Amino acid sequence: MAGGVGVLTDATFDEEVGASPLPVLVEFWADWCPPCRMLQKEVLSTREFQDYASKNFILLEVDFPRAKQQTAELAQQNRTLAQRFGIEGFPTIIVLNAEGKKLGEMVGYDPQAGRQAFLDSLEKMRKG
Hints:
Elements lengths: L9 H10 L4 E6 L4 H11 L2 H10 L1 E6 L8 H13 L7 E5 L5 E6 L6 H14 L1
Parallel strand pairs: 1-2
Antiparallel strand pairs: 1-3, 3-4
């Protein structure tokens, strides 16, 4: 998923979310996490998801990689956001409204449920 909001400091996160005309979909993930990689392959990288998400969300990816280097500032920012939202596992998807209120959260990915169930859950969260 491409981070539509981009790299943010904690101080600007609320400003960016508040300026968004769309809900913000925040994906907490890690390259070493098998369910994260499955979610990426089976859902997030598909044309169906990308078309849906581009019309309905601002996307923000919060990455905890082992395979690539991050700047110390970005790694700290990601840890701060994970702490702020109480992230305990990957992947975690959070949908926020313009006021920064959490509309919903999904933890993990169930490949048995499939892409449509994931998209249906996102739509329910988006509508609040």
